[in-house]
From TrEMBL:
Coiled-coil region list: none
Topology versus the membrane: Multi-pass membrane protein
Similarity comment: Belongs to the mitochondrial carrier (TC 2.A.29) family.
Gene3D superfamilies: Mitochondrial carrier domain (1.50.40.10)
Protein name in UniProt: Mitochondrial carrier protein
Transmembrane segments: 112-135
Keyword vocabulary terms for this entry: Membrane, Repeat, Transmembrane, Transmembrane helix, Transport
Key word Transcription present: no
Amino acid sequence: MVGYQENDTLTSNQKLISGCVSGFMTRFITQPLDVVKLREQLKSPAVRAADQKEWFKATRKIFKNEGITAFWQGHNVGQIHSMISLTCQFFVYEVSTKAVAVSNVHNRYKPFLVFMCGVLAGGSTALLVSPLEVIRVRQMLNKSQYKGIINGAREVYKTRGILSFYEGVNASLLQMGPSVGIGFAVFNFVQPLVLARMHNCDRGHCKSGRHHYNPEHVLLASTIAGSASGFVSKSVTYPFDLAKRRMQISSYRSVNQPVSKELMKCTSLSDCLVNMYREDGIRGMFRGWKITIYKAQITSIVSFTSYELMCYSLRQI
């Protein structure tokens, strides 16, 4: 499992390396889905009504009008964002679960505290990467206006100063904290079950001896657990994710006015949630859910499996 293990031989630096590698792999693979997902989430109701396009048709439209490179708009910032984000998530979770494991807290409270370790990891990450996330989102919408990290940061700063970099941070905290907490909890519940099934052993033995399994077993178990983790965590917190995206472009002013008018924006979390409900009821709060779930599952699978396999490789050195 991910998290503190009493007999684990890895050092903190090795786990940092594993998290960094996981972040790099995850972003490179999921970037195209992120671009399509973002554009679908931010379309105004009028544009969606006119287009009547599903996300796979939107993908074809992006490719036809902008070329293959459009799917990697904002990739440099996204890559830095992903590496910092996953490194922070895994590291904070490993350190905090260790603190819980060695504490004198009664065992009945430890499962809840371990879940809160995941929430802490998600919240810490949200605060850390918020400026990069705002720049990345705007680069996906207008590459030329926000070209490069430095120029992108300068353009964001022009709108509302330093506060521009933290637009949507309250929604980000409400979404990312619980999402990461649920994600780790689901992964750590499902993975040992899959390993136990494959090895016909009791669950407790699988927990303590996970690093003795073949990499193929770790890969399969992590893939299944990662898929379940991504589906559950993103589904539960999705309305906050949608609100976060729309708040992150609240001060966005595109040089291309038609593009700017097509976007859904809001300035507060309550405003976002109310408008999403008015837009199309409960369905409005889950706009773009389908492609987001696909992306969340792939992200979770790649991040967990690459992290686990990297840890496995380092243990063999």
